[in-house]
Amino acid sequence: MKTYRKELWFETNKRRELINITSDVAKCLNDSKIKEGLVLVNAMHITASVFINDDESGLHNDFEKWLETLAPEKPYSRYQHNTYEDNGDAHLKRTIMGREVVVAITEGKLDFGPWEQIFYGEFDGKRKKRLLVKIIGQ
Fold it and tell me: What is the spatial distance between Cα 136 and Cα 109, in angstroms, rounded to a whole number?
């Protein structure tokens, strides 16, 4: 069995942003030379997420509205966490959207269903953050 590990770094211009990272993960897979196995992609910060869904702008807008309904950014005072920070909502959004994804590797390709793409979800941006790509297989 072989393993491959790579950190990808992101710094968004906005507090919240969804970034399609499918091609970044596919590049890692290509660099790994692993043809059969699994890839784990996980956010290494507790206010960021990795998830799989469709790359469609209307859906991304729906995510934004839905997340703001469930955990609105303001007023900051609504969150007990916000004594030294103002990102209580970002922690909740990350929990809702998830920490990681695992994707099968078949014949050297990410083995997706129709329309599936991998996204990095940033909920407390404007600073450097990383995610981990870990590939195991043969």
Answer: 13
